[in-house]
């Protein structure tokens, strides 16, 4: 059993428990995975200024996002097919986030539907919406999100087509003989297979059940998604989303200041600076590199969140210093949930808090609102 001492250990523990096709689906990125690696490397390379004797006996990690006071400037990002990683995976993660008073973002392509998550836990729920060809179904999802009391709509705009994820073809997630390869891999991971498939009725199809009634497995599910994302959407389509949704709207997948300004112009309350964890267009900027210019362009008009490459509490502090007001954790929670279930996500959040507290103490800031570029070592200090 892998010892979990740091947030990074969950990745090894998840790899040990999951069949290869699932671990690689979560872990992989697009094309040669250069952006995937840059997300982590660029963020990790951000050097901090160590400061001393700043009276940091009390450090306040709380913040307010979209009118909700939160103990940490952190929310759980939307993740597709999370229920494949653990039985009722999204619900388990939502419970762990809500126990800390943190928002959980339920993906359109989650395997636990909105009703299930809401019945399991009353905490702050955000709903993530994809652009689908069937606008009527999008409206139904928005209406459902309202009915279950979702506090924000996270509208993902960086997937007009799925990115080319070559690792999936090698791992058996897609490609020839994929179903057979997945069964063979599952036989080598009996703990996972028992939990997710054998010990009871497998998952239903979550939020997509109304449109996927006859789907019989992973290939049908992924095939439907691949055929139903809609590349014809434009900024002006935000008008009807705005008219259907009167709570905070967060546009996710912004990597360019011009698009960030457009998001503010259409009346969004927030954006997520994101390259979808390096899973869409390989070669684009890492979030850490894109973030400062975007924060400068629109930080006074909307709430700027960031994801992609965040694996630790230290990374959360770095993103805040680069201009984010809040940070979404994606793979970090998926690995923790796959490895240890709800308790794993709870432990991840404890570790994130601990690391943030140490980082803030040693950079001499005692409140999240005081984290800015002044805690970064400038090139001038290094050269
Ligand atoms: C073929 C459709 O955001 C991801 C998720 C969901 C993607 C659906 C894939 O894996 O990046």
UniProtKB/TrEMBL annotation:
InterPro entries: Aldolase_TIM, Alpha-hydoxy_acid_DH_FMN, FMN-dep_DH, FMN_HAD, FMN_hydac_DH_AS, LldD. Its EC number is 1.1.2.3. Its cofactor is FMN. Keywords: Cell membrane, Flavoprotein, FMN, Membrane, Oxidoreductase. Residues 1-381 form the FMN hydroxy acid dehydrogenase domain. The keyword Signal does not apply. NCBIfam families: L_lactate_LldD (NF033901), PRK11197.1 (NF008398). PANTHER family: L-LACTATE DEHYDROGENASE, S -2-HYDROXY-ACID OXIDASE-RELATED. This is L-lactate dehydrogenase (Cytochrome). It comes from Sphingobium xenophagum. The lineage of its organism: Bacteria, Pseudomonadati, Pseudomonadota, Alphaproteobacteria, Sphingomonadales.
